[in-house]
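TASK: fixed-backbone design
INPUT:
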């Protein structure tokens, strides 16, 4: 199959590379010439474990190409995946679909034979209907089929999530299209992925409902963690106890900082916006958003208490600033709320992240980046473990910085409190 991925962000690049690795001819298109030039040299614009190796391998064996020529690439392909961004509209809460519609219009001029046009970007219900209208302006409806095929991969785990997905969802009511796509995904289905064919609108909503549900699970356990802190209960016991019920399941029940990233915050807002359009009140998701927005305040309040209400001139270290481990993505990371607040209150902040310096903090007073854990921790009053990178999972704090006794606030519950306390350090965690 000849595939064309339009947009080389997380979804487009990872899916394109993985499809190539499964034996398809793939052309990845982006309007950013610089990005395309770098990709041709095997340089990856994002931090994603294992991606670079797969790009180089498939580019060398000529199953993977990179181009800025959308029209030519569409003409030469059978299946076109729209993978451009759908960020939150400026000052609003709905998804900004301008890039999707722009691409659809460009595709409409290049339909030279039957093509399947797929939205892999996260798009609100009825977007497929709009794309169909755009394509119909210049083409006979028999020349194309518009499908929703949402992607469920996580940053930092993207390749594994693509190759071993729980499910493949195809939103189309066209039998021939369904057959072709089932065949395309057969290598994953034969390895155990469930295959679900639904209406196009249902597939669009499955994606949003899934992300909103996962965000709800996290927010739920974060609120239970607040109660655990007041009642002397360990939230991890609650997560295990709840998770053992197969109807609930144990995943995404880890208490910690506010959920962040490029998806949950954006998609929870966008699904509300869609529901408003259809005069439906998604009150549960609305309170999830509110609770999550309040989460950083609650954790900062704890920092305030841990430091006995004295933040000015306190030396605070952040270990990890990205929204989760194995990514360099800072979008909606809770560190973006916490570090500026603490800096404003007069704290002296050092941070270390395995993905290095972050521009986001460049203008803040008394915030510096350190290139080793040791440098970051040295002289600190309080060490906050903000992101659950493996690099932070077995630090011997006592040996690392001799003499100085700092407090640890482990926002990801990486350590066992008794072990850290045995090193003579004060230790706080979440939901305990
Ligand atoms: C999320 C979904 O998990 C993917 O299925 C989806 O494809 C993707 O959004 C998307 O829409 O593109 P991602 O944002 O990459 O993936 O990262 P997650 O691993 O889901 O983490 C999101 C946030 O939840 C992070 O801030 C993470 O720290 C937090 N989280 C996750 C918790 O606080 N507790 C948990 O138990 C799990």
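OUTPUT:
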């Amino acid at each position: 199959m000849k595939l064309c991925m339009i947009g080389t962000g997380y979804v487009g690049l990872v899916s394109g590379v993985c499809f190539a690795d499964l034996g398809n001819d793939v052309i990845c298109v982006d309007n950013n010439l610089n990005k395309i030039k770098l990709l041709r040299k095997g340089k990856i614009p994002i931090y994603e474990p294992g991606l670079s190796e797969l790009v180089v391998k498939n580019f060398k064996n000529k199953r993977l190409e990179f181009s800025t020529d959308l029209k030519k690439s569409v003409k030469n392909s059978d299946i076109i995946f729209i993978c451009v961004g759908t960020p939150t509209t400026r000052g609003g809460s709905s998804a900004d679909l301008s890039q999707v519609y722009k691409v659809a219009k460009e595709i409409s001029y290049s339909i030279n034979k039957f093509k399947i046009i797929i939205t892999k970007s996260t798009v609100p219900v009825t977007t497929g209907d709009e794309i169909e209208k755009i394509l119909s302006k210049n083409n006979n409806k028999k020349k194309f089929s518009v499908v929703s095929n949402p992607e469920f991969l996580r940053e930092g785990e993207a390749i594994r999530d693509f190759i071993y997905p729980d499910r493949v969802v195809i939103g189309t009511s066209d039998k021939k299209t369904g057959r072709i796509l089932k065949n395309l995904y057969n290598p994953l289905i034969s390895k155990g992925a469930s295959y679900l064919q639904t209406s196009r609108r249902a597939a669009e909503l499955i994606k949003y409902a899934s992300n909103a549900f996962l965000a709800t699970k996290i927010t739920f356990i974060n609120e239970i963690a607040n109660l655990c802190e007041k009642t002397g209960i360990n939230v991890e016991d609650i997560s295990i106890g709840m998770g053992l019920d197969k109807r609930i399941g144990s995943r995404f029940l880890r208490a910690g900082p506010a959920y962040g990233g490029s998806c949950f915050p954006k998609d929870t807002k966008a699904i509300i916006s869609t529901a408003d359009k259809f005069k439906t009140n998604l009150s549960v998701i609305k309170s999830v958003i509110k609770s999550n927005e309040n989460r950083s305040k609650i954790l900062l309040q704890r920092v305030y208490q841990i430091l006995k209400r004295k933040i000015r001139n306190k030396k605070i270290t952040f270990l990890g600033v990205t929204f989760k481990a194995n990514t360099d993505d800072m979008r909606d990371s809770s560190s973006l709320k916490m570090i500026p607040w603490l800096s404003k209150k007069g704290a002296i902040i050092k941070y270390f992240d395995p993905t290095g310096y972050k521009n986001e903090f460049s203008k803040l007073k008394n915030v510096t980046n350190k290139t080793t854990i040791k440098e970051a921790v040295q002289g600190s009053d309080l060490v906050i473990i903000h992101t659950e990178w493996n690099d932070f999972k077995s630090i011997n704090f006592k040996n690392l910085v001799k003499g100085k006794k700092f407090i640890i606030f482990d926002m990801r519950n990486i350590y066992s409190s008794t072990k850290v306390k045995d090193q003579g350090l004060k230790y706080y965690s979440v939901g305990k």
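COMMENT: The longest helix spans residues 200-231.
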